Amino acid sequence: MAQDMKALNLKAEEYASLTDKVIGEVKKVVVGNDDVLDKLMISLIAGGHTLLEGLPGLAKTLMIKTLSDTTHADFRRLQFTPDLLPSDILGTKIYNQKTATFSTKKGPVFSNFILADEINRAPPKVQSALLEAMQECQVTIAGETFPLPKPFLVLATQNPIETEGTYPLPEAQLDRFMFKIPVKYASLNDEKEIVRRMTSGVMPSAKKVIDIVKIIEMQKFCHSIYADEKVINYVTDIVNATRNPDVYGLDFTNFVAYGASPRASIWLTLGAKAHALMNGRAYVIPEDIKGIAPDVLRHRVLMTYEADAENIDSSYIINKVLNVVNVP
Question: What's the predicted TM-score (pTM) here?
Answer without folding.
Answer: 0.90
